[in-house]
Write a structure and sequence with these properties.
There is one protein chain. The protein is built from 16 helices and 23 strands. By secondary structure, it is an alpha+beta fold. The chain has two domains: about 140 residues, no CATH class; about 375 residues, Jelly Rolls (Sandwich), CATH 2.60.120. The strands form five sheets. Strands 1, 4, 5, 12, 17, 18, 19 and 23 form an eight-stranded antiparallel sheet that branches. The longest helix has about 30 residues. Keywords: Lectin, Membrane, Transmembrane, Transmembrane helix.
Length: about 625
């Protein structure tokens, strides 16, 4: 080895080259060596020992290996031409297919021919270029010395990112490759003998042995009864449909109002009359009805009846003490109290027209209906709420026909919206002897109210020989909304009234609140006692409708009323824990006002939600 080459090789490379020279001289194969990745202790920058391989051809057996030709030994690489600073080896493609030569070769496990390098070949290799830090990179023995690695590069790359071997789940389970599907033989039952196992494998089908005639009969009976039930149900529906009474004859329109202008509603010839009163209308109601445009008005094609607080006009202190309130445009001289639903209405004269004419001035009735005085000592208060009561008593009434009102009820505790009818003439006497038809009554309390809140609407008939014997409990009904409330949208409330039936429903005849078939007189339906007591006196009770038809007292002309009441002492709001007053109390109105912090927050500030909003009113009479 020349001195020049010796100076370019490291100590380990020189030692390795000398060992190979000895091997070549002896004609034996080099020993299998391993090298460590750790750097030498003497020089940390030195590369690990090299194990270069190149291609040699061998002669016949027993001959020494033939080194590369002289021309290949003269091929050198200068350090400047060495790629990436690694040792470059000239490739001598001598007999790429050694089998053609016929000599013996040594094969690497990857399939590449391998033979020990010669000293001349090692001398032709250029030392590595040092890095900027002075340490050389490790040579690629597989690529730079013209040999394949022990494994292909793709296989080694896949092993780098391969999943780890699966761990055993228990101490008894063995580790299996994740890609290998475990197949185990199903254990054989030791509880069954071979004979029993063979019997179980035989599927018995007794129904194929013979057909039972009773099975066919049972099928015929089952399907026959199903068909019969369907047909019977259809027949019953048909006859029930035929039994539903309908209006006979023609219906002639009496009134149709869509509230396009306020003049047509409240004007001189308007269709609705505003009743002004603060007596409670016989029910002990806590509102006063006014002509104020704040309480009843027309807007955007709708009629509004809106309750407001009296304290907005006179202040809260004046409600309870030291104030005299005189209501404007009181109508008591016109109505004469005939629209009151009082229990003592039997004292009212018979056959008095509800249209009303000016009569002798009644000071006591006028004072109660048109004025009030607040006194903290006595507990008397001025009606704390103002509302409106509109009627068609002067414009339209019907005797047998149909009424249809599309409206949305208000929201708020203790509000009492109503669409109802009273007789024009008290032919049979005062209330309830001449009757009352309630098309719709509701409560403004929410659906959680214990006694039917705003998700219920109710229809009823009031009738009887006097107020104490009102038989409304026999002719009333309701319809409820299971998912929602009637104050959320508009609904159509209808009355169909004939001498043979009275039907009240909401939106559809299927949703009927009340359906009365007049098959016998109301006197017989009421089953009233033959004797009544009035204080210390007793009197025989006579049939007051004896001169009327079987539909009496509902065989006369009735007019329509729209109103929103507040509270009352007649029992419409039953006494309960959440109710702030008692019906029998003399100061019930004052108790209601003092509890305003409880009920006033339930009244919406939007007038559309706090009002009875009416879309249209239609009335037809049988003709």
């Amino acid at each position: 080895m020349s001195n020049y080459v010796s100076s370019k090789l490291s100590s380990q490379q020189l030692r390795f080259a000398n060992e190979n020279e000895d091997t070549e001289d002896s004609g034996a194969l080099p020993e299998k060596r391993t090298h460590s990745r750790a750097p030498s202790k003497g020089n940390a920058a030195e590369s690990p020992p090299l194990t270069p391989r190149t291609k040699f051809t061998f002669g016949s057996p027993g001959q020494p290996p033939i080194p590369p030709s002289a021309s290949s030994l003269n091929t050198t690489f200068t350090p400047s031409h060495t790629p990436t600073g690694s040792l470059a080896v000239p490739h001598t493609n001598v007999h790429p297919f050694p089998e053609a030569v016929g000599g013996s070769t040594t094969h690497h496990r990857s399939g590449t021919l391998s033979s020990p390098p010669s000293q001349g070949e090692l001398l032709q290799r250029t030392p590595r270029k040092s890095t900027s830090t002075g340490t050389g990179s490790r040579p690629n023995t597989a690529g730079e010395y013209g040999m394949s690695a022990s494994r292909p590069a793709s296989a080694r790359f896949r092993e780098t990112f391969a999943l780890p071997r699966t761990r055993p789940l228990t101490m008894y389970s063995s580790v299996q490759n994740s890609s290998v599907k475990i197949q185990r033989e199903r254990p054989r039952s030791t509880m069954l003998t071979d004979e029993k196992r063979d019997e179980l494998q035989e599927v018995k089908k007794p129904w194929t042995e013979g057909k039972d005639p009773y099975m066919r009969i049972s099928y015929f009976l089952t399907y026959g009864m199903i068909i019969f039930g369907i047909l019977a149900g259809g027949v019953r529906c048909f006859f029930e449909w035929r039994k539903v009474p309908m209006m006979k004859g023609n219906l002639c329109p009496v009134m149709e109002e869509h509230f396009t202008s306020e003049e047509g509603v409240f004007g001189e010839n308007g269709k609705f009359f505003r009743e002004v009163d603060m007596s409670g209308f016989g029910n002990g109601e806590f509102e006063m009805t006014t002509t104020s445009p704040k309480n009843s008005y027309v807007r955007d094609g709708y009629l509004y009846i809106t309750p407001t607080l009296t304290s907005d006009d006179i202040g809260e202190a004046a409600i309870e003490d030291g104030h005299v309130f005189n209501i404007t445009d009181c109508t008591f001289n016109i109505t004469q109290g005939l629209s009151y639903t009082a229990k003592d209405s039997t004292l009212l004269p018979l056959n008095i027209s509800a249209v009303g004419i000016d009569r002798e001035f009644d000071v006591k009735g006028y004072t109660k209906a048109c004025s009030a005085v607040s006194n903290a000592t006595s507990g008397a208060v001025i009606n704390p709420v103002q509302s409106a009561r509109l009627s068609t008593r002067r414009s339209a009434s019907i005797r047998f026909g149909k009424v249809e009102v599309r409206a949305k009820i208000p929201t708020g505790d203790w509000l009492w919206p109503a669409i109802w009818m009273l007789p024009v003439d008290n032919v049979y006497g005062g209330w309830p002897m001449s009757g009352e038809i309630d098309i719709m009554e509701a409560r403004g309390n929410g659906p959680k109210y214990a006694t039917q809140g705003s998700n219920y609407v109710r229809g009823s008939l009031n009738w009887g020989p006097n107020g104490a014997l009102n038989a409304a409990y026999k002719t009333y009904g309701w319809w409820s909304m299971r998912r929602g409330s009637y104050d959320e949208a508009f609904h159509t409330y209808s009355l169909e009234w004939d001498e043979d039936f009275i039907r009240i429903y909401v939106d559809s005849r299927l949703h009927h609140l009340l359906d009365i078939r007049v098959k016998k007189s109301f006197w017989e339906l009421g089953e009233f006692p033959p004797m009544i007591s009035q204080g210390s006196e007793s009197a025989v009770l006579h049939n007051i409708w004896v001169n009327g038809s079987k539909a009496a007292p509902f065989d006369q002309n009735f007019y329509l009323i729209l109103d929103v009441g507040v509270g009352g002492t007649n029992g419409w709001f039953p006494d309960a824990k959440e109710k702030p007053w008692y019906d029998g109390s003399q100061t019930a109105m004052g108790a209601f006002w003092r509890a305003r912090h409880e009920w006033l927050p339930t009244w919406p500030t939007e007038v559309e939600k706090r009002s009875l909003v009416v879309d249209y009113v239609k009335m037809w009479q049988k003709c």
